[in-house]
Design the sequence.
DNA sequence: CTGTTAGCGCTTTCAG
DNA sequence: CTGAAAGCGCTAACAG
């Protein structure tokens, strides 16, 4: 079927070794021979068999990218960033998202062990000790996208959740002069959520301002319910800072239902700046994470690690956050 | 490093052939031998080397999924659907999106030829003759996600753009009693766009109603500009049916700017039902394509084709559309 | 500068 | 039911 290295060699009256050298741009081959072989290869429409090459090198041109189910909104941007950078280094991206037919764990174990991929990028806002152990034992380089500050010993890209939340809270207090703030958290196992909460609390404490916390789970519904609780007591907060935009939308829903007006009766702020936020009415004041570069950073780091170009034991990069001031507070 | 088949064989006092048979669940091996080998393999933490296996079979467990840059919103759902189905059949998904560093064409050519992948899913709303030719010559099965009715000879999943647009237009005329309708199209090379336009026109003609067409490009900005043109003449349409929701949002922007009210002064309808549409004010009446199954359908078909389980020369599946009636008309 | 050759880990005839 | 052995296409010593 497809032409092999043998045929090219035969037609060019050289050994397969020479052809192989040409393919790998080995400078030792004579210019003349080089040209001739390239010509014949083209003529035969010869393409090196990647499967064979990967096999003999025991190293593939494949990198795995594992994504959890949650972060729909970032999915696209991250994949694009990763793919773009990897492609330029000659790698392909295998994308896997955990879903009902496979757990994150089995996914990981197979990926790390079966030799298919040469490196792995793992986006996992939550990670349990077992998983971490499995990761530590990996024989291939891994780059984590995870915000847990306690997680050491990995190449890591983190979102700057803490500062984002801190600065937003600071803004709400200093500029908007709220004196009683509420925060709705995401799942407590989620590092992003925990750091946002911490940023919120620290800012409230710094300014000695009253605050309360509700436990949500990043879903719209939980935002709705938490908002309901917050507004049903006699002592109502002046502003709700939701742990993500989705929950902020849930707040919008409840607030509208109860006939209140944002931001006059109550303010709402979010985190993430998902696409829809600018179109809500009123448009949502929120924190934007510079997500577009996360995928690129991760891929960059991974490639360097694969190529042994990294001298430091592990790198940590922070994707900065930025306040997006709109009309909801 | 990692245990190989040889070591397992040696420890079990059998030949590597027998071990191989166990790995491939060959029923010929004796139950006893089978168990013993499985046990030893586990003990040695042996994982078959996929790179080697793929190589000798000259067939990988990899499938390519190529996506254009445009369709952000669907990206996620399609990848998930594909990944889910493929994973259950033992395949991995290599995702590639065309971007500034590679054109769709080079992407395709490499993918089809380098032997890395065993099948390809290509989401390409526009396709030129050259590309089609390249696809026809492919030695691996390809499933297209493309709505061009003229495109024959491929396994294909299509969106039911025509009926969606037709029924929406019919609704605008019969139920909402508009008598002068405008349509903003996407790029003319885009099949989805062309079919939506055709559905719109056919419905207008059927009901003998006045209509006009503006050429957009699926971007918000083009929606804005086309809307501006439509509303600046003396004879204004009663409703604008945008070729996608993004352009409908552009219309919203212009209409709000000019102080008009939707739907009292002018109606707006869209196509796609992207996430934001329900949160616009007023919420957008639009056409939803059942996108969630497209990825699954495509993967299903591809797997069957790879396994030679398909008797028909090529399959065509339609992803149906459904009207989503909200407040904007 | 080029050729010879071993071998990567596995599957798959072919014998027995 | 099991073993021996060939070989997939390529790379990488080693030899010349």
Sequence:
């Amino acid at each position: 079927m497809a032409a092999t290295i043998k045929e090219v060699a035969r037609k060019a009256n050289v050994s397969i070794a020479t052809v192989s050298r040409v393919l790998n741009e080995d400078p030792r081959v004579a210019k003349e021979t080089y040209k001739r072989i390239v010509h014949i290869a083209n003529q035969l429409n010869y393409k090196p068999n990647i499967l064979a090459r990967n096999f003999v090198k025991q190293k593939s041109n494949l990198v795995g990218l594992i994504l959890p189910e949650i972060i729909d909104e970032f999915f696209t941007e991250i994949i694009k960033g990763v793919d773009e950078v990897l492609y330029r280094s000659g790698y392909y991206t295998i994308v896997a998202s955990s879903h009902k037919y496979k757990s994150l764990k089995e996914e990981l174990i197979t990926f790390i062990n079966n030799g298919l991929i040469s490196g792995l990028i793992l986006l996992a806002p939550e990670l349990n000790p077992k998983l971490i152990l499995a990761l530590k034992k990996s024989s291939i380089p891994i780059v984590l996208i995870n915000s847990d500050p306690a997680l050491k010993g990995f190449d890591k890209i983190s979102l700057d959740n803490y500062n984002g939340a801190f600065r937003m809270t600071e803004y709400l207090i200093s500029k908007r002069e709220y004196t009683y703030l509420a925060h709705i958290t995401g799942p407590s196992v989620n590092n992003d959520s925990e750091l946002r909460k911490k940023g919120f609390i620290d800012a409230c404490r710094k300014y000695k301002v009253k605050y309360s916390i509700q436990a949500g789970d990043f879903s719209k519904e939980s935002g709705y319910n938490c908002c309901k609780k917050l507004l049903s007591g006699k002592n109502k907060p002046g502003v709700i800072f939701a742990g993500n935009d989705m929950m902020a939308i849930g707040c919008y829903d409840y607030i509208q239902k109860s006939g209140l007006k944002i931001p006059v009766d109550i303010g709402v702020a979010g985190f993430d700046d998902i696409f829809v936020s600018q179109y809500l009415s009123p448009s949502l004041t929120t924190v934007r994470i510079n997500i577009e570069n996360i995928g690129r950073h991760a891929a960059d780091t991974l490639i360097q690690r694969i190529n042994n170009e990294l001298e430091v034991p592990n790198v940590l990069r922070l994707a900065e956050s930025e306040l997006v001031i709109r009309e909801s507070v």
Summary: Residues 14-18, 21, 28-30, 33, 55-58 of chain A lie near DNA strand C (CB under 10 Å from a C1'). Residues 5-48 of chain A form a domain with the 434 Repressor (Amino-terminal Domain) fold (CATH 1.10.260.40). The CA atoms of residues 220 and 246 of chain A lie 5 Å apart.
